[in-house]
Specification:
The chain has 12 helices and 11 strands. It has 319 residues and is an alpha+beta fold. It folds into 2 domains: 3-197, Jelly Rolls; 207-318, Arc Repressor Mutant, subunit A (Orthogonal Bundle), CATH 1.10.10. Helix 7 (227-233) packs across helix 8 and helix 9 (253-269) crosses helix 11.
């Protein structure tokens, strides 16, 4: 199995869509601030041209972003971006393009910035899966000097987004939203293939010895995996496998497996014709009472409560 398999399987469980919302064309000095995102939303920013200082207000970290950098905030953290001068920002003015996104500009004569801002939307209740296993913020560099396939693909995608956002052609909104969805997948791929993969699931998936276990669990999460089975796939002893896994993810392989199964169960419970007993069996539980207990502990509500909540949300969406 390849490292790509785990990502394809993850995105079969967790539906992620994207939306470009604002294109910013600024001259320094400028400053932008965002509050904490609501559940099921991940803000993203693409530096098309120029540079910016990115500050995560929750981790109290800052870093410089340059042309071609893409930042995702899987935990939805409040954050600020600015030109780094410390000067009072110039007032901005907005206009709405025919494709539905907003163009924000100022009359600054300083260093120029071209910035795309949008959001990814995660189907509930899967934001918890994303936030549990991805870092607080994730920066991917498309101009890294190495010319890897993943970063080349991202750079091409960013160019397409810039071209679409620069015009008002027919289907512009649909194209930009489709490109935004692809952006999420390509950022995940590039991060997992990086020599400096961040903590969490991306570090595991890119780890040459642990990747086989990740691929196997994502490909068939309902299989009755045991720790010795997963350790064998990685050519490790059970103790060594457990230590490496815990060190990189902060939880055990069986914890991850349970989260995957409960996410699958949440999808199945949305179907009105399938019983809770059938869902339990589908995700690998012979005992429906054991399934109900684990689902409630993991999701914070019973299967029946989740089913009713999901159906209510669907009915509202259709009204």
């Amino acid at each position: 199995m390849s490292e790509v398999d785990w990502l394809s399987h993850l995105l079969q469980i967790v539906t992620v869509t994207g939306q470009l919302e604002v294109r910013c064309a600024y001259g320094a000095p400028w400053r932008l601030a965002w509050g904490r995102a609501v559940a099921n939303e991940i803000p993203y920013h693409v530096i098309v041209r120029g540079r910016a200082i990115f500050e995560d207000l929750e981790t109290r970290t800052a870093r410089e972003l340059v042309s071609g950098d893409i930042v995702l905030l899987p935990h939805g953290a409040a954050h600020v971006m600015h030109d780094g001068s410390g000067q009072i920002p110039i007032r901005t003015h907005q206009s709405v393009g025919s494709a539905g996104w907003m163009l924000s500009e100022n009359d600054g004569q300083g260093e120029q910035l071209d910035l795309l801002c949008g959001r990814f939307f995660i189907s509930p209740p899967h934001d918890r899966l994303i936030r549990n296993y991805l870092p607080t913020n994730l920066v991917t560099r498309t101009v890294d000097g190495l010319g890897s396939a993943a970063t080349d693909q991202l750079a091409s995608l960013v160019r397409l987004m810039r071209m679409e956002s620069a015009g008002n052609r027919a289907g512009g909104r649909a194209v930009l939203n489709a490109l935004s969805s692809a952006l999420f997948t390509l950022v995940m791929r590039a991060a997992s293939e990086s020599d400096k993969a961040p903590d969490g699931l991306l570090a595991l998936a890119g780890h040459p010895r642990l990747a086989p276990a990740i691929a196997a669990m994502f490909a068939d999460p309902v299989h009755p995996w045991k720790l010795p089975d997963l350790a064998d796939l990685c050519g490790m002893s059970r103790a060594t496998f457990m230590r490496h896994f815990q060190d990189r993810l902060g939880c055990s392989a069986l914890d991850l497996l349970t989260d995957l199964r409960m996410s699958l169960a949440a999808n199945e419970l949305k179907k009105p014709t399938i019983s809770t007993e059938a869902v339990a069996e589908t995700v690998g539980y012979q005992s429906v009472s054991a399934f109900r207990r684990v689902f409630t502990e993991t999701m914070g509500m019973t299967p029946g409560e989740w089913r009713r909540q999901a159906h209510t949300g669907q009915a509202r969406a259709e009204d």
